[in-house]
TrEMBL record:
It comes from the Eukaryota. GO terms for cellular component: membrane. Residues 69-137 form the Cyclic nucleotide-binding domain. PANTHER family: CYCLIC NUCLEOTIDE-GATED ION CHANNEL 15-RELATED-RELATED, CYCLIC NUCLEOTIDE-GATED ION CHANNEL 20, CHLOROPLASTIC-RELATED. One of its GO terms (biological process) is monoatomic ion transmembrane transport. This is CYCLIC NUCLEOTIDE-GATED ION CHANNEL 15-RELATED-RELATED. It comes from Salix purpurea.
Length: 245
């Protein structure tokens, strides 16, 4: 760890990074080392037989059982997802998503606390077992196209814009599934992912879907109040006309 830190400090001096950036880099590196003990797991796994890789992934990703959606997945679906997951480390203050930015990944939180800040300023907590970027899965399912021969056409060139900011309140350990990998998974297992139980597991604890539902309810309530107000004015107008007659 000391050798690694020395190399990083030399690199930061060479790139003239300001002190605040250097502090954040060293903090992220220390947390990453604490989680991985300095071992490059991806490189280590690539040199092992495929069946051994699969069994090790199943063991390593037992942490994912904290995420409700994975409890509903069959083993063959879970194996494909686990093969594409990448470990991610975020430090306190890091922003995973920003309002107006692209949603390019789906994040499964294993350890740590975050906050979900909607465009209207509403703040909701996120913790282990929660998912963020889950709107990307539904977006891919809703925007899927099927060719005449029944094959699914990829939605390349189309992008989803974030309507919220997700910020880390503590150091966070998570697994990330990129948009490209998620699109491939949905193309293979679209029927399974459209299962109401799976969709319910995503939406039940989702701040994104709760905020969207609240917005729909508010719009419906305002529309109803407007209709009642117009109806009341119409009744009063008719009553006045009848009185003059």
């Amino acid at each position: 760890m000391s050798l690694r830190q020395r190399d990083i400090e030399q690199w930061m001096r060479h790139r003239y990074l300001p002190q605040e950036l250097r502090r954040r880099v060293l903090e992220a590196e220390r947390y990453h080392w604490a989680v991985t003990r300095g071992v490059n797991e991806r490189m280590l796994m690539e040199n092992l037989p495929e069946d051994l890789q699969r069994d090790i992934r199943r063991h390593l990703f037992e942490l994912l059982k904290k995420v409700s959606i994975f409890n509903l997945m069959d083993d063959h679906v879970l194996d494909v997802v686990c093969e594409k997951l990448k470990q991610k480390i975020y430090i306190k203050g890091s922003e995973i998503f920003q309002v107006g930015g692209l949603v390019e990944k789906m994040i499964f939180i294993v350890r740590g606390n975050l906050e979900n800040i909607d465009h209207d300023g509403t703040v909701l907590p996120l913790c282990e077992g929660d998912v963020c970027g889950e709107e990307l899965l539904t977006w891919f399912l809703e925007h899927s196209l099927v060719s005449k021969d029944g094959r699914r056409i990829k939605t390349s060139g189309q992008y989803l814009i974030s309507s919220r900011t997700v910020r880390c309140r503590t150091n966070v350990e998570a697994f990330s599934l990129s948009a490209a990998d998620l699109e491939e998974v949905t193309s293979i297992f679209a029927r399974h992912l459209r299962n109401p139980l799976v969709q319910g597991a995503i939406r039940y604890r989702s701040p994104y879907w709760r905020a969207r539902a609240a917005t729909i309810i508010q719009v419906a309530w305002r529309y109803r109040k407007k209709c009642l107000r117009n109806s009341s004015k119409g009744v009063q107008s008719n009553h006045s006309s009848n009185s003059r007659v």
